[in-house]
Amino acid sequence: MRRNDVFLLLAVLALSGALFFALRANSGPAGIARIYHEGVEIAELSLSKPGEFRWESGDDYVLVLVGDGRARVSEASCPDKLCVNTGAVSRSGAAVVCLPNRVSVVLEKPGDAGELDAVAF
């Protein structure tokens, strides 16, 4: 390896490390769960107190439970139940998505609305 190759390798490693820590800083504990249907916000729940939200449309439904800083889809009418099997999420930027019902639960820190999500590209 030449000297310039070593400098290039060190620069790439330094940039990768900085990017890793920058992305990790944004993914701390969340404070709210925003629930969307077809991209439109339909509910906002605080993760600090126990609660639930049920979305229904005809025979389709999704039940979201929140509390203890976490949110999860506990029941859904979708056939594969991937959203239910995802389990509870607690980090800011995390999401649980029910594609057949077009419902998503996105966790955010309070005051994060409108900011760009550095995790999704």
Structure explained in plain terms:
- The structure is a single chain.
- With about 120 residues, this protein is of the alpha+beta class.
- The chain has a domain at about 30-110: N-utilization substance G protein NusG, insert domain (mini-chromosome maintenance (MCM) complex, domain 2), CATH 2.60.320.10.
- Helices cover about 20% and strands about 35% of the residues.
- It is built from two helices and seven strands, in the order H-E-E-E-E-E-H-E-E.
- It has helices spanning about 5-25, 80-85, and strands at about 30-35, 40-45, 50-55, 60-65, 70-75, 95-100, 105-110.
- A four-stranded antiparallel beta sheet has the order 2-1-7-6. It has a three-stranded antiparallel beta sheet with strand order 3-4-5.
- A hairpin with a 4-residue loop joins strand 6 and strand 7 (about 105-110).
- The model has no long low-confidence stretch (mean pLDDT about 85).
